[in-house]
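Z., the sequence and structure:
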Amino acid sequence: MKLDTELRDFFGDGDTFNSILNAKGKIFREHKNRKTLYIKKEGKGYFLKIHRRTGWKEIFKNVLSLRWPVLTAGNEMRAVMRLDELGIGTMKPAGYGQRGLPPAWLESFIITEELENTLSLEELSRNWKHSPPDFSLKFEIIRKVAEISSRLHNNGINHRDFYICHFLIDLKALEEKNSMDLYLIDLHRVQIRKRTPERWVIKDLAGLYFSSMDIGLTERDLFRFMKTYRQKPLRTILKDEAGFWLRVSERAVSLYKKNAASQY
């Protein structure tokens, strides 16, 4: 178990692991054996993600559905470390621990520092369709998101929940206009391989496109993304990769229709 010094006193001098698993805080998300809490110590915020034992029943259920469940916080910890190696902004870990017998009886946690003065791209772009942003701001965000996407996929990584709500923009840097700092979060389902299979690349890009369909992007905006993502002239992309981008678009439209139907 690893824990930043300033957090050790926060969780007591006894059984620290159990204290962390039973910590109280604002619940941000709760799903079966996973829970995410927001806690604060001396004015500093942290997010605590807890993974309880999965059990064989849940594992078999997922395997029969041709899915392997995320069993521990270790997957997110590895993803954070890998993104950091690649120079992609993400969360900063402040604690991590795991215990128990794999795979069914593992318990684990990861604690990350709150990313202060940030806003998700979903929130930032909510009114873009009716009140377009400054062109240079939109251009720079598209460029940055495309660069991050390309770096992930070219290094064997796919996110699996690749939506604009999981990109946070640093508002302080934006205000000072010194840099465009984006952070990619919610990494617990990230997959890391030597090479990213095309179907997972398509899934990521379709998710990204689907989540940005209502923010007023133009065809030129989409082309800008494609050029930066591939680092090729648009003419070459449209000639050589038309089928690939058509599959991305079709999947995104399918997600959009499915999401719209679920609202009724």
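The mean pLDDT is 92. The chain has two domains: 2-113, 118-262.

Let me know what you think.
H.
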